[in-house]
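RECORD TYPE: inverse folding
INPUT: structure tokens
STRUCTURE:
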């Protein structure tokens, strides 16, 4: 979305130019015709719009405990053909799939900036998903290469600088799916929803987020059974505590050849850990 702006650069006159901004629109998610959430999100472009919205809705319903498997969804469709109708998505559950609106841990309204906004209480947020026990070993070299791979997939971020991204990789570092959104938690829901709709469980994979790792991102990863979560920025203290309690590996500050491991270091082999520490000492000595 382009907008006329004024730009000021050091030593130069104030000039008028045009800039591209990340699109932000509300999406109302309905289950069997009943509204359950309104969230601000970045719609996909062109033919990707319907696909990405369906992924977001599917991932949201999985991580909120409404559904458990792909067959729980009968179909997902917009309410109509107008622009406003495209922002209202109906998820119809399969016959026999019970839906109790009171079981949702999220109020109807949520914001794009923080998925926790609208949550009733901390107790409601911390759903009872069991810990992950998968060994899922991964090497430091693989992890260190993931941010560059994700950045290459962030086409809208490259134009706007205003979007978050999330991606699922296999343990060899192969990119399986990447999605962008103005809301970090929305991007996570999209990649989880993609896996759900494709019929595979990311229980042997790595989730990478472009910003910080929050409590909710760790919760969503646990719901999807993702054992390793990495972020290019910092995790919160609650995210680190949650990861430790949930058997997850949490990596932060994954950038510029460095990383911090806040929980689940056992998934990195002793050789890998030793190599990473030696590399860090070498870099520190050269500074």
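DESIGNED SEQUENCE:
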């Amino acid at each position: 979305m382009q907008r006329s702006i004024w730009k000021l650069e050091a030593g130069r006159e104030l000039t008028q130019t045009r800039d591209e901004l990340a699109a932000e629109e509300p999406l109302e998610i309905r289950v069997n015709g009943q509204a359950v959430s309104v969230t601000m999100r970045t719609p996909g472009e062109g033919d990707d719009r319907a696909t990405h919205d369906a992924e977001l809705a599917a991932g949201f319903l999985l991580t909120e405990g409404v559904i458990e498997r792909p067959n729980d969804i009968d179909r997902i469709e917009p309410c109509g053909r107008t622009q406003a109708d495209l922002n209202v998505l109906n998820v119809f559950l399969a016959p026999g799939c019970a839906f109790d609106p009171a079981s949702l841990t999220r109020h109807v309204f949520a914001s794009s900036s923080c998925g926790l906004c609208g949550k009733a209480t901390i107790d409601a947020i911390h759903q009872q998903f069991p810990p992950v026990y998968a060994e899922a070993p991964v090497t430091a070299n693989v992890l260190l290469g993931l941010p560059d791979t994700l950045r290459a997939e962030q086409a809208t971020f490259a134009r706007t600088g205003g979007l978050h991204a999330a991606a699922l990789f296999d343990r060899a570092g192969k990119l399986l799916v990447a999605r962008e959104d103005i809301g970090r938690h929305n991007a996570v829901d999209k990649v989880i929803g993609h896996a759900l709709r494709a019929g595979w469980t990311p229980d042997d994979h790595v989730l990478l987020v472009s910003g910080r790792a929050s409590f909710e991102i760790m919760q969503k990863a646990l719901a999807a059974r993702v054992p390793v979560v990495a972020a290019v920025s910092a995790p919160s203290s609650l995210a680190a505590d949650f990861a430790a309690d949930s058997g997850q590996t949490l990596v932060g500050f994954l950038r510029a050849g460095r990383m911090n491991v806040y929980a689940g270091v056992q998934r990195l082999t002793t050789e890998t850990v030793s190599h990473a520490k030696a590399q860090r000492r070498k870099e520190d000595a050269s500074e």
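NOTES: The two ends are 42 Å apart (CA to CA).
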